[in-house]
UniProtKB/TrEMBL annotation:
GO terms for biological process: thiamine transport. This is Bacterial extracellular solute-binding family protein. GO terms for molecular function: thiamine binding; thiamine pyrophosphate binding. One of its GO terms (cellular component) is outer membrane-bounded periplasmic space. The keyword Signal applies.
Length: 344
């Protein structure tokens, strides 16, 4: 069983207001507290779930915005309480796996969340409801990078030395991407370390946030990076001169999940919210506004939008699913190496 280290404990966060529900969940009432990311992610939930599918239900939705790390720490800190502070915890797929392995979240199935039957089989689990997903790609400036990249290896081309960027917080996926061109895999990141040290010698630039890297792309400070397709979609729409390339090594996946803590005060309302989250309108809104692919297989996006954010059957054959157990066991070592060897 995967256990969480003590360093993940700490820092709890505040909360915001809202309102919701859904008629088929007769027992759902009162309020539901959704621990979520803030910004556009929270706003789209408010508009399309709380004030959309669940409007007029009589259930109040309270959003508690914070980081994924804070929510995991809160779940761990509250594990012995009969009633926790959240009914739903939004987590990355890695986070939802680790919380379930630690016995903190409910098993979920169609008896609790009927729309779970519509979820794409390859991202379905028994411990979380996948909300949105996107693939890992290469973003590049078409005026500065020619020919267009086809492999992660193209970021190591000496002619782009000093003009490639990575994000500090994405150390896991950056090491994995390097491993994929150095004999490693989703279950073996070790070869990626030596490969990244080569990139370090070439003057790779490390940015603290997605926003900082986007600004570097916009200014021309960098011309190529590894990034999520959803970010590329948003940045292109914001006017940044970039194109998106799919690496031949495969498409790694990012998944945003929703889970229900075992000590959630209002589980019926939580299941109701999760069911509403999988409906067509909320799923389409996240595709249009944030560039994420729907997890509900029955959602049909407009053709132009689908070509930009969703994946064909052929592309899905290239998906590289994360080895959650491997990452849970090696994360501390990966982060330590990144901080002491790669960033230093």
């Amino acid at each position: 069983m995967t256990k969480i280290s003590r360093r993940t404990f700490g820092i709890l966060s505040g909360s915001l207001l809202a309102s919701t529900m859904m008629p088929s969940f007769a027992k759902a009432a009162g309020r539901v507290v959704v621990g979520t990311w803030g910004g556009d992610y929270q706003n789209l939930q408010q508009i399309n779930i709380a004030d959309g599918n669940l409007k007029g239900s009589g259930t109040q939705v309270i959003y508690d915005p914070a980081t994924d790390t804070v929510r995991k720490a809160k779940l761990l800190a509250e594990r012995r309480l009969p009633r926790g502070s959240m009914d739903i915890a939004c987590l990355t797929r890695q986070g939802s796996f680790e919380m379930f392995q630690n016995g903190l979240t409910e098993e979920l199935d169609e008896t609790k969340v009927p729309n779970l039957s519509k979820v794409l089989p390859f991202i379905r689990t028994n411990y979380s409801i996948p909300h949105i997903y996107t693939g890992r790609v290469i973003l590049y400036n078409p005026k500065q990078v020619s020919p267009a990249p086809t492999s992660y290896a193209d970021l190591w081309d000496p002619k782009y030395a000093g003009r490639v960027g990575v994000i500090d917080l994405q150390y896991q996926t950056t090491i994995e991407s390097a491993a994929m061109i150095a004999g490693g895999s989703a279950s073996d990141y070790e070869p990626g370390k030596a490969k990244l040290l080569e990139l370090k010698k070439q003057g790779v630039k490390i940015y603290p946030t997605n926003e900082a890297l986007a600004q570097a792309l916009k200014s021309g400070e960098i011309v190529m990076c590894i990034m999520w397709n959803a970010r590329g979609y948003m940045w292109k729409n914001a006017g940044i001169d970039i194109e998106i390339a799919i690496p031949k090594e495969g498409i790694g996946l990012y998944l945003s999940d929703m889970t229900v803590p075992k000590n959630a005060p209002n589980k019926e309302a939580a299941y109701q919210y999760l069911n509403a989250m999988l409906e067509e309108v909320p799923q389409t809104a996240f595709a249009e506004q944030m560039g994420y692919a729907p997890t509900n297989a029955e959602v049909k996006l407009p053709a132009e939008l689908a070509s930009a954010v969703d994946y064909t059957a052929e592309q899905r054959d290239q998906f590289v699913l994360p080895d959650l157990e491997y990452v849970a066991k090696t994360d501390a070592d990966l982060q330590n190496w990144w901080n002491k060897e790669f960033k230093a």
